[in-house]
Amino acid sequence: MTYLLAIRYVTSGYIPLAEAVSWSFIRPVPDATSPTEEDLVLGTRFGSEIVGALVLRLEPAVPIAVPAGSGGGRRRNKASSFRGGKGLIRAWTTKLRYRGKGVGTDLLHEAVRITRERCGKDAEVGFAVEHANSQMVLPEFFNGTFRKRERWAAKTLDGVLAEREMLKKKR
C-alpha cells in the first residue's frame, strides 16, 4: 500500500497537466476566427473509429515591418499568408493496437504535404519544443523512456522528409 501511495504522490503532477489540455491547446487565442490562428487536427479512421491524430500548427514567416504611412506593400490573402513559414507538430498519437502498421507515418506524410502545400515546397516541418507530452514531472531518471520515444519520433519524421526528397528528385 505504501508503494501505491508513493507512486500516486510522485505522479500527481500529471493530473493538472492533463486537465490543462483543452480547446485552448488547439485555439491559442480565445476568440480566434481566422484559420491562421487555429491548429489543424488531422485524423485517421478505421471504420467509424478514430485510430490516429496529429495536431499541426502552421506558423507564418515573420512579416517584414512596413513603415506606417508608406502606403507600400500589398494585402496578403489567406493562401499566401503562410508562404515561407513552417509546420510544427504539437501532438501525434496512434491507438495502441494500430501502432507499427503505418498509420502514424501516414499522418506525418500528410502533415508534411499540407505544410509544403501552404508554406512553400521547401518549408520546414518538425516537432514543437512545447508539444503535448513535453512537460516531465518525474525525476529525470524515470524520463528515459519518454526521451527515447521523442528521439524515435524525430527519426521517423526525418525518414518521411527524406522519402519525400527522394521522390521529388525522381520526378
UniProtKB/TrEMBL annotation:
Is Plastid set as a keyword in this record? no
Q: Which organism is it from?
A: Colletotrichum gloeosporioides (strain Cg-14)
Database matches in SUPFAM superfamilies? Acyl-CoA N-acyltransferases (Nat)
* Keywords, in A-Z order: Transferase
In Swiss-Prot or TrEMBL terms, this protein is called Acetyltransferase
Is the Glycosyltransferase keyword given for this protein? Answer: no
Q: Which Pfam families match?
A: Acetyltransf_1
Highest taxon in the source lineage: Eukaryota
N-acetyltransferase domain location, by residue?
46-133
Can you name one GO molecular function term for this protein? acyltransferase activity, transferring groups other than amino-acyl groups
